[in-house]
Amino acid sequence: MRRYVLRRLAVGVLQALGITIAVFFVIRALPADPVSRIVGMNPTPESIAQARRALGLDMSLFQQLLTFLGFHGNGVFTGSLGTSWVSGSTILSEIAITLPTTIQLIVTSFIVALAVAIPIGMATARRPGGKLDKGVFGYGLFAGAQPEFWWGLMFIFVFYFKMGIAPAPLGLLDPELTAPDAVTNFILIDSLIAGDFTAFKSALGHLVLPVLTLSFLLVGPLLKMTQQSMSRVLSSEFILYQQASGLEKKSIGRSTLRAALAPIITLTGILFGFMLSGAVLVESVFSLNGLGQYSVAAVLNLDFPAVQGVILVISVISLFVYLGLDLLLAKIDPRILVK
Amino acid sequence: MTPTEALLSTRNLTVKYPYGDVQNVVIDDLNLDLYPGQIVGLLGESGSGKSSLALALMGLARHPGVVSGEVNFRGQDLLKMDDEELRQIRGNSIGLITQKPRQALDPLVNVGKQISRVYRAHSQASKEEGQIRAVELLRSVGINDAERRVSAYPHELSGGMAQRALISMALSVEPDLLIADEPTSGLDVTIQAQFLDRMWERARDANIAVLIVTQDLGIVANYCDRIVIMEDGKIIEDRTTVEFFANPHTDYGKKLILSSGADAKASNADVAVITSPEILRVTDLRKTFEVDGGKRLQAVSNASFQIHKGRSLGLVGESGSGKTTVGRLILRLADPDSGEVWFKGERIDAISPKEFRKYRSKIQAVFQDPFDSLNPRWPIERVIREPLDLHTQMNKEEKSARVKELVSLVGLTDDILPLRPGSLSAGQQQRVSLARALATEPEFLILDEPTSALPPAARADMIRLLKSLQERLDLCFIFISHDLSTVRELCHDIAVMYLSEIVEMGTSEQVFSAPSHPYTRALLDSVLFHDPNNRRVDRKIKTELEGEIPSPVDLPNGCYLAARCPIAEQRCRDDHQELIQIGPSRSVRCWKSVEASK
Fold first, then answer.
1. Pairing mode of beta strands B66-73, B8-19
2. How much is the average pLDDT of A14-29?
């Protein structure tokens, strides 16, 4: 078990490194020059050469890679991802601000989405063709066909503009409040640490609409998977046998859910990895300044160190998420061997 | 029998499956009474609604079926009860054993916990008491080292072991009615006999009612008091077993009785000196397989026998005895660790696979699962033609003529040639396999359980066909089977295998009329003859085997049967037994039998 985890981590680190190096070369193969972004209009040849030197682009590609990895001073191996070409601050410090915002958004959204999808999926699997099942079918047709930013805008229109019960979709906190001291950069946690309940309530309020939007979307695939997985287990021989053995309903329900859980967990993992950078539209609509927005900006600005850093961080997080899921699956199903 | 009041009676019982707007009726307005102490056999072709009825008697239907009508159990209608009342009856007053034991167990929970859950659902027992009871129950159904087995997950159990776990669950609360849906289909014959004997005693002693769903006339004849036959969700025949065997009313019943007509007739066996040339000789064949943890599983050890032209050898044994491996070693589907295989005076086990290819057309095989052995995408014509393409120089017309000849040889007609295997019945598929095996006029055939996957009527047809081919083509073959009556009918000679060894060899006549080895005797005693007037339960069985077959990974030092043998002594447990000749073409691996024969 421990050896399995260590081996997975070792392989994962190599994978993450491989991806980063590949990205390193691919972005440099783009037919665009980051220097022209920096020097502005009508640059002199000197200023261009100076900018190239400042960014390290005058070195050979291989030397640039060695620098990035940390063979000349600070680099990936010494825990530094370099500095942004646009803002001049370190990539790590920028990710440390944007990543918690995104994680806070998607973790909450997944909790809400699973809390909705699993019970409804179970109920509709039990009564296929019932009222609830028809409702779910309608939702699937309706929600699945609309992009999330549109739903975000709709929710803002209804809940903020028309009904006025949601806060303005501008950031994580009311503008008149001061943010609590940054400890973890998770604003919910930081406000609790600071004992600032006004800020906590405001942060929670600002999270409602984005989470609603994102989970509204996530419920679709999760619900479908729960339904299918549940109805497969419900028509299985062993559930029938448990009924015939006169086991209590609660106990049969637990067995069913446990047996149906594996595909739901796998799907959750896949969606989670995807959402780390895929929540960008929702982040933009609600001006949350999360990792998705940060990575899009990095690409548009040709901020190579930022792009490399974001990709490395996302692949490391995905690595841990997948490892955790595999361990969880092995815990649920004894047939999955962890050697 | 003077039936008292019915324990369970159904009135207008109906089970429907909604299928879009159509209602698929699988049980149709059915009335059935079950009495305490009576064992009822429920027969019928697959799809007749037997299994649905077994479930409906508990008020259950497979998701999303609907049960309606009345199921009166001790005067109360199950279908009108609330969930809690129903739950108290299921698994408590009515026990169920299903036919797919492994699927019936929750794959994510160990068996001990599952048994304990059922027990605790119907008692006030604590978790610890449930666990103790689970160990007791597993031991009571003959599982060795029950303490270790309780923590095994279903995928770690053999089919037979899973079946026992299920049986122990059903019996954990001492039901008044036991419903058993093909309860022994995954079990070996000696184990099957053990289980059915115990169930029969249980029904007699505790006066419980039993409903056995089965396709096996042997079970019905030996254990059932009454027979119910279903067709299209209705009961078409319902009478006592003796009456039924004497004079079946329905077509299905007549066909069933007819298919067992040839039961247990000895083959044309003779002890005369065999003068025909030797075709196959096997000496000291040995094969082990590596299993987890570097241990070795002994599949075959010291197997030696020869087969002469025109004769057939029956290789008999329970699952895991190594009989199939012997066939695979001869066919070069696996290589032996040591020993020799000779075919017509030439050694064929040590030659390269390429050299062996020229023997392929001379040595052919038919396997157990007819569908698995045929390419589902090829039309039958191509399936049968393939060996001709590979091994002969025939032109197109010759091949097509030969294919037609083969088809009629195995009793099929030309119109199946364009069809694909999926659209044939299991019996027809097996005939196609046989036709393909015969295509190159092989001199030697290996028939590995060719009848055991077939329904009873098709099985009888297949045996008749093999018998007639044997006479017409002077075939020479090994017939691998666990079905003793089939072997008796088809084979001149018999080798009985137990745990990788041949324990007894002789002509069919010798072995069947005077079995010598205790294992052979037990095996013969387990045969369920299709005759309600000669029931196993009425005979006094002397040679019942106890418990479970030992693991072929950790074999005992002495005789492999010693732990189960009713006549074992200390010497049996100490000394490994050799196969010793006790007469012309007759040998046995048991010192006690050898002494008795002197």
1. antiparallel
2. 87
- Highest averaged pLDDT of the listed ranges A85-94, A126-135, B186-195, B254-263: A85-94
Three-class DSSP labels, A54-107 = HHCCCCCHHHHHHHHHCCCCCCHHHCCCCECCCCCCEHHHHHHHHHHHHHHHHH
CA A265 to chain centre: 15
The residue among A24, A48, A78 that closes a domain is A78
- The Cα–Cα gap between B386 and B377 comes to 13
Which residue segment(s) compose the domain that A37 sits in?
2-78
Share of chain A above pLDDT 70, in %: 99
* Of B187, B192, B181, B194, the residue nearest B57 (C-alpha): B181
Domain membership of residue A83 (yes or no) is no
Closest CA to B553 of B338, B336, B320: B320
Examine residue A85 and state whether it is found in any structural domain, yes or no.
Answer: no
The ipTM is 0.75
Instruction: Give yes or no: residues A53 and A141 share one domain.
Output: no
- Rounded to the nearest 5 degrees, what angle is found at the Cα of B150, between the Cα atoms of B144 and B152? 100
Output b/e per residue, A31-42; b: 16+ Cβ within 10 A: eeebbeebbeee
Contact A238 B55 (CB under 8 A): no
CATH of B278-362+443-597, one of 3.20.20.150, 3.30.360.10, 3.40.50.300, 3.30.870.10: 3.40.50.300
Task: Write phi, then psi, for A292 (nearest 5 degrees).
Answer: -60, -50
Q: CB-hemisphere CA count at 13 Å for B423? A: 10
What span, in angstroms and rounded, lies between the C-alpha atoms of B538 and B591? 31
- The answer to whether residue B85 neighbours chain A at the CB level (below 8 Å) is no
pLDDT digits (tens, 9 = 90+) for B267-285: 444 545 567 888 999 999 9
Q: Where is the domain boundary, A18, A46, A78?
A: A78
For residue B87, the chain A residues in CB contact (below 8 A) are 246-249
Choose from B52, B106, B120 for mutation: most chain A CBs within 10 A. Answer: B106
Helices and strands (H, E) in chain B, number of each type: 22, 22
Strand partners, B237: B229
Domain check: are A68 and A96 in the same one?
no
Could you tell me if A65 and A97 lie in one domain? no
Pick the more confident residue, B194 or A240: A240
Cα B421 from Cα A158, distance rounded (Å): 62
Global pTM value: 0.73
Can you tell me the distance from the alpha carbon of B121 to that of B123, in angstroms, rounded to the nearest whole number? 6
Distance between A335 CA and the closest CA of chain B, angstroms: 7
Does the pLDDT value for residue A113 go beyond 80?
A: yes
Q: In terms of domains, do A39 and A176 share one?
A: no
Report yes or no on A169 lying in a domain.
yes
On whether any CB of chain B is under 8 Å from the CB of A14, the answer is no
The answer for A 214-243 residues in CB contact with B (under 8 A) is: 231, 234-243
* Residue A223 in domain: yes
- Cβ distance A132 to A120 under 8 Å? yes
| Rounded Cα gap, residues A321 and A279, in angstroms | 17
Do residues A148 and A172 share a domain? yes
CA angle B364, B490, B523 (to 5 degrees): 110
Find residue B505's DSSP bridge partners. Answer: B495, B587
Helix-then-strand count for chain A, H and E: 14, 0
Whole-angstrom distance, CA of residue B590 vs CA of residue B572 = 8
**Distance, CA of B305 to CA of B330 (rounded, Å):** 12
Q: Identify the CA nearest to B7 among candidates B86, B91, B58, B72.
A: B72
Q: Are residues A302 and A323 in the same domain?
A: yes
Give the count of beta carbons closer than 10 Å to the beta carbon of residue A143. Answer: 14
Question: For chain B, how far is it from start to end, CA to CA, in angstroms?
Answer: 48
